[in-house]
Amino acid sequence: MSFLFTQTILTRRSLLGGIAAGSALVMLHPFTARAQANQAHLRIMETTDIHVNIMPYDYYADKPNDTLGLTRTATLIDRVRAEASNSMLIDNGDLLQGNPMGDYMAYEKGMKAGDLHPVVKAMNALGYDCGTLGNHEFNYGLEFMFNTLNGAQFPIVCANLTKGQLASDPKKDELFFKPYVIIEKQIKDGSGNLSPIKVGFIGFVPPQIMVWDAKNLEGKAQTRDIVQAAKAWVPVMKEAGADVIIALSHSGIDGAGQSERMENASLYLAGVEGIDAIFTGHQHLVFPGPKDFEGVPGADIKKGTLQGKPAVMAGFWGSHMGLIDFLLERDGNTWKVVDFTTEARPIYHRDENRKVIADVTDKPEIVAAVKAEHEATLAYVRRPVGKTLAPLYSYFALVADDPSVQIVSNAQTWYVKNLLKDSQFKDYPVLSAAAPFKAGGRGGPEYFTDVPAGDIAIKNVADLYLYPNTVQAVLITGEQVKNWLEMSAGMFSQIPAGTKDAPLLNPKFPSYNYDIIDGVTYQIDLSQPQRYDGDGKLVNPNAHRIADLKFEGKPIDLKQKFVVATNNYRAGGGGKFPEIAADKVILVAPDTNRDVIVRYIIEQGSINPSADANWTFKALPGTSAVFESGPKGRQYAAAVKGAKIEDAGDSPEGFAKFRLIL
């Protein structure tokens, strides 16, 4: 079985590169400059985790943003093509969901067979050679995904997504997509002659899509372990004549040790014999680079290698262009890699005052291609749905009960109580678990919710709840509620009593896993070590950060049953919270959490989302901690309920520093 495509170097893509080369001084890559008659320079370029960010525009804030946008990356693509005598362009997944344009296309406009999605329209114009799937491709269902991807003028590959159950051998799996493709291409060598080369691309998606999108995939699809699939298919690619084999891995880099069906398997994928290079994604980080993967065994953050093989992760939302450059040498009728370099090249930088400076401008052809969808998305997100009597902001969502999380919990509780009122679960108390999604971190100092009092539009609701999750509810015990909160408390560092200005937040703990549970009251004791690690494993059995946990003013009954409103990701086991899994689910609702919030606001007309301070930190006299938030949070610091917060200056990355008095 062989999946072979043929193309010539004299395409529109090389023509565009020539135009770029002619319009500015181009610094050729050393491999192009020094290649001999039997050598050639091949550059592979990556985008990853675009998440529908075509325009450099933040639809949630309703303003331009110079840190993102495929229209900017497109200009960079032209530049880097001009630096190399031979190049190819790939995408590593997570195209179709992630901002309001994605929701507009899925929920308002829809995608019929034959329609062209703006992301695909842009990618076709840029001349992509190959792509793979990300986990978010499945968020709107299989029909939407196929109607969209069928418009791509380039192959999509995925070797570990099957129709129905797994076969006894990966090579016998009935796959939705071709597992790999071999593109036969004419490349120019150091003497200017054209010669054929066969470049193989194989793709992988995280197996966890079966949990995260069970509603769309259960009974229709299955996933196989990434490394297992690679070991089966890479030898087939070799037999089919691939000179160079490139893995498109929508899977991150995790050095904690290989495990079956692991989510972030790229480090171990690099160990599969026959793979020459790895393009990674999914984690929204940058590799190679100075900090994101420091200390990961087998990852060289300077050279850009995983287990000695070239690898790159190109950020997210178009923030970077991933580059792997090969110096190839002719060996008889085949080519082999004799040298390589890797790079994650950004579209912007920050000056000495941490102000964002764009390094590239928009590519006009891409702006024009998506103009209609951009304008339709603006109209969509500006549509008012109600009013809020108090501001909604997330600047302090990780350190105190917060209005942006409160409104989500209020809406979820309202919705689930209404759905269960005539069911067998009608007499169980309903709690609600919600997490802050926009809380700075990798998103930068402006990545916070900030909605003033007054009209609420759809853009504001999307800002409160970034993902198209659907509502689910679980039935669990009081003890499991407590352990849920213990897992969430991994957000914080351990701070011994009496410590001054200790770092408060655990940088490796994502904010979307910091669930606040409404309907109970509790305190978090930071002097205690965390009870669970990031994988939900019990690491300190005698540790209890959650203190004074009460329901209706009384200590919680650990055996009492509670319904907890949440989302499909968490209810299905996402985040690896102890004992929270699909077997606890008692309600699978048809509506997204965002739609529920919109309905709640419409139903109420006006809302007052002030936080009720149902959780606080346990007092530790003489102790303080510091954390970072957005500079605009300073106007709200004094009004935060249940916490004493002081201004502590600025950070080099543009964040404001705050001191929490414990």
The fraction of residues assigned to DSSP E strands is: 25-35%
Overall shape: it is globular
Helical residues, percent = 10-25%
From the N-terminal CA to the C-terminal CA, the straight-line distance is 65 Å
Could you say which structural class the secondary elements and strand pairing correspond to?
A: alpha/beta
Report the average pLDDT across residues: 92
Biggest β-sheet strands, sense, barrel: 9 strands, mixed
Radius of gyration: 25 Å
Unreliable runs? 7-24
Count, helices: 17
Oligomer: single chain
How many extended strands? 39
General description of the model:
This protein is an alpha/beta fold. It contains 17 helices and 39 strands. Strands 1, 9, 10, 12, 13, 14, 15, 16 and 17 form a nine-stranded mixed beta sheet that branches. It has a six-stranded mixed beta sheet with strand order 7-6-5-2-18-19. Strand 12 (244-249), helix 10 and strand 13 form a beta-alpha-beta unit.
What is this structure, in a nutshell?
The chain is built from 17 helices and 39 strands.
Core attributes:
nine-stranded mixed beta sheet, six-stranded mixed beta sheet, 662 residues, globular, alpha/beta, 28% strand, single chain
Write the layout of secondary structure elements.
Blueprint: E1 4-7, H1 12-23, H2 30-34, E2 39-47, E3 57-58, E4 63-64, H3 70-82, E5 87-91, H4 100-109, H5 118-126, E6 130-132, H6 142-149, E7 156-157, E8 161-163, E9 180-188, E10 194-204, H7 209-212, H8 214-217, E11 221-223, H9 226-239, E12 244-249, H10 266-269, E13 277-280, E14 286-287, E15 299-300, E16 305-306, E17 309-314, E18 320-331, E19 334-346, E20 348-350, E21 356-358, H11 364-369, H12 371-381, E22 384-388, E23 392-393, H13 403-420, E24 430-434, E25 450-451, E26 454-457, H14 458-464, E27 470-477, H15 478-488, E28 502-503, E29 516-518, E30 521-524, E31 546-551, E32 554-555, E33 561-567, H16 568-571, E34 585-592, H17 593-604, E35 606-607, E36 615-617, E37 624-629, E38 644-650, E39 656-661
Parallel strand pairs: 1-9, 2-5, 5-6, 6-7, 10-12, 12-13, 13-17, 22-35, 24-33, 28-37, 30-36
Antiparallel strand pairs: 2-18, 3-4, 8-11, 9-10, 14-17, 15-16, 16-17, 18-19, 20-21, 22-26, 23-25, 24-29, 27-33, 27-34, 30-31, 31-32, 37-39, 38-39
